[in-house]
Design brief:
globular; single chain
Length: 131
């Protein structure tokens, strides 16, 4: 279980973050362990959404299973790489293309985070975790 604390979540997850803290869920490992019933309960109690909780749980899975930094896991999630299995079946070229497309659409203007070497490292880690 990854006990890395939940902090610096994007503003778009502020309601979910508030619900998580309210329920004593303060690490990526705790978030990954949430089941659908627990998420439904939290959604009924606040302004959070099931969609955002599922995104956060996907990010938590990538953080915990592959030991990725939360911002790297979020980049993958938002680029359409939503699970370890999808990452494991990807190619480095596809991963660079998808993450680069996302970064360009966001207009960050910064240099691409994911290069072929990093993509290959992440894909190999995903494949190892599936064995």
């Amino acid at each position: 279980m990854n006990e890395q604390p939940l902090h610096d979540l994007p503003q778009s997850f502020r309601d979910e973050h508030q619900q998580l803290l309210l329920h004593g869920i303060n690490s990526w490992g705790d978030l990954k362990a949430l089941d659908d019933q627990q998420i439904s309960r939290m959604v009924r109690q606040g302004r959070s959404s099931v969609r955002n909780f599922n995104r956060l749980r996907g990010i938590a899975t990538l953080v915990c299973d592959l030991n990725l930094a939360p911002q790297d896991a979020a980049l993958l999630m938002h680029a359409g790489i939503a699970s370890v299995a999808v990452l494991a079946s990807s190619t480095p070229e596809r991963l660079v293309r998808q993450t680069g497309r996302l970064e360009r659409s966001l207009g960050s203007g910064r240099r691409a985070v994911v290069d072929l070497r990093l993509a290959q490292t992440w894909i190999q880690a995903a494949r190892r975790s599936m064995n």
